[in-house]
Amino acid sequence: MNVQRLVKQAKKGNKEALLQLIxxxxxxxxxxxxxxxxxxxxxxxxxxxxxxxxxxxxxxxxKNEAFYSWSKTILVNRCKTLLRKKERYxxxxxxxxxxxxxxxxxxxxxxxxxxIDIQILLSQLTGLQREAIELRYVHDLPYQTxxxxxxxxxxTTKSRISQGIRKLxxxxxxxxxxxxxxxxxxxxxxxxxxxxxxxxRRQTS
Length: 205
What we know:
This protein is mainly α and 205 residues long.
């Protein structure tokens, strides 16, 4: 699929081209919306709002190749707007509050007991740290995209992830791992550690 070609067509009013772009990544859109909204109905509502916005503002996209990061930023903003309207959106700045939806029976991504362990671990982080880490490792989004979505500088995003990972390492017994791995320094080493830990837990049941 040629994303840039389809975006050009969409900008000219070709609705089928825009629909093709959306359908190509619909699962990722849904997972992202579900992360914030916590249930299927609200997640789909957020996606519908996003689609309407994309139809209305596609001509404002400056870099055609950035369509997916741009559209996912719009989706996150729509999720937060809907949550505010429902008066159940908690500011991410509050210590210990989570922007990530709790596990529920209708969550299609709850598949193993290890998911519960991950949620318990992530609940120990601040809302800001947890949001950044989930966007990075659950949704595999680039740092710059996360920064755009959350409206903070790139350095702040990396700092939140690094601090959150260090806290997770401490909870998991970071000293023990340090003795095995040697002296680990820097965000890159921390990120590799977190990625391996989280994904390994998801694969075990």
